[in-house]
Amino acid sequence: MPTTQRAQEVNVRNLGAAGDNRADDSEAIQKALDSGAGRVVIPCGVYCIGRTLKVTSHTRVTVDPKAIIRLADGAGSHGDRFLMTNRNPGNGNEDIVVEGGIWDGNNANNPRGAESDPDAYTGVVLNFVNVTGLVIRQLAVRDPESFSIRVGEVRDFVVEDILFDHKRIRPNQDGIHVGGYSERGQIRRLRAELPMATNDDMVALNADDDVERVINRGMRKGPIRDIIVSDVKGNDVYTFIRMLSQSAPLERITIDQVSGSCRALGLNLNNWTYPLGHGAIRDVIFRNLELAKTATSSETKTLIDIALWVNGLVLEDLRLGPDHRNNVSTLTIRHGRPFVADLGGLAPNQVESLRRASSGVTLHPAGDHWRVEAAPGATFILPKGPIPYLKLTPT
Question: What CATH number corresponds to the domain at position 171?
Answer without folding.
Answer: 2.160.20.10
